[in-house]
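Sample entry was shown:
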Amino acid sequence: MTLFAALLALTVAEPASATNGGRPAAAAALARFGAPVGSGSLVFDEEFDSPIAWGTRWVGDATSAYQYGDHNPGDDKLDWLTPSAVSVTNGVATFTARPDSRTLENGRRSWTTGLLTTEGSAENFMVRAGDYVETRVKLPTAAGAWPALWTWRNGTNEIDSFEYHPDNPNLLELTNGLRHSAFSYRDSAVIRPGGWVTIGVRYGEACDDWYVDGVKVFSDGTGTGSGWTAYLILNLSVDAGRYHPAPADLNPFMYSADYVRVWR
């Protein structure tokens, strides 16, 4: 996930909403690019209307994207995964990060936090080229919060629908880690701490397209290549402080998701 810091130096474009103050510019982007087309069928639909289907749909205690399965200090994370850090109420999943008593391999205090991945579940759902994935999330406010929706398989295949850090309050990081393309999208009218935002990506063999609140904001021109498949990961990481501030205190903090949907 730290790929963005390196890739941003390679590919940084002006955001579509950099002029005319947010919404008017977003409307201009909509006229230019159009909204995502709902082609095909809804093949994955997580509305968080029921308790998390651990083991069946989601796994929350380990991922191959983490060096030690349930924690990953080498990626500038203080995370220690636990399914109990994800709760569901009134159709919303809430991820809560809390300071923990365990010490990481780098000597830092760990934080228990939540992650949902389709990897290792009974459904074993994977996205593939041609799919459109969308989520609606409430961005966190606390320093150290690092939420994301991304993909992973076999040590690579990472495409970040988004990453967010409250120290950049109006910015989403959009990254194709597979083919080295990154974009810093700013929009103070849409992206803000504590605000809800809808983010989608259409994976394409030759080009991936990112949408924010129904407006296409970035096309990478590189895509996934043929035969690409990957697992979904929705999570709240905790920054260790190398690229973005670590937590300012030991107070728990949260991030929420309304849904995750995939069309094919």
Summary: The mean pLDDT is 89. Residues 23-33 form the longest helix (11 residues). The helical segments are 3-8, 23-33. The radius of gyration is 17 Å.
